[in-house]
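ok posting inputs for the adenosine-5'-diphosphate job
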Amino acid sequence: MIHLILFGPPGAGKGTQAAFLIQRYDLKHLSTGDIFRANIKNETPLGLSAKSYIDRGQLVPDSVTIDMLKDEVERHPYGHGFVYDGFPRTKAQAEALDAFLAGREERVAAMVALEVPQEELKYRLLDRAKSSGRSDDADPEVINKRLEVYSSETLPVLQHYNAMGRYIGINGIGSIHEVTERLTTALDPILA
Ligand code: ADP
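and the output
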């Protein structure tokens, strides 16, 4: 199975590009943010505990997130593979994913990272808030917190896969189509 990590800060365009990637490479989209939001909507115990973190711009604890992710992967044994969107977001999550895949004699194919400067991200998130209905997008303080958490807790994941030679940086500025083209150029040789 293919295990592709789509990486990038909040507002970089991961959800948008994931929709393209799953079509092109016949993969399943696995977004931890979407799974949490579905659980919040359905008022499950997982949703109730995740909500308090998400509303403050903090990460949901690793133990909860890692178990949820593994369950989700195991629920889909027959497909071509997955695009991970929003996971791994900490070094511990990356190590847990690597160990989990190693246990299946599989590994991360690549980590593609959408690169977008901070000022542009803030603008995009506030703009997205108008249509997403996401309260974590509407509050500048929560946005700042998320960007801070990204720098301190999530950037080490980039270094982790870079050291393993799996990191591919993609310029995330430009039209959706332009970014899609860059992803295709980088990934076709590996996945197509
Ligand atoms: P964005 O990329 O715009 O921040 P996401 O939908 O990926 O949005 O995530 C929304 C929120 O869900 C995050 O701010 C965080 O609180 C929580 N979350 C998502 N994925 C993870 C993860 N892998 N580990 C911990 N918390 C997560």
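notes: The chain has one domain: 2-185. The chain is about 60% helix and 15% strand.
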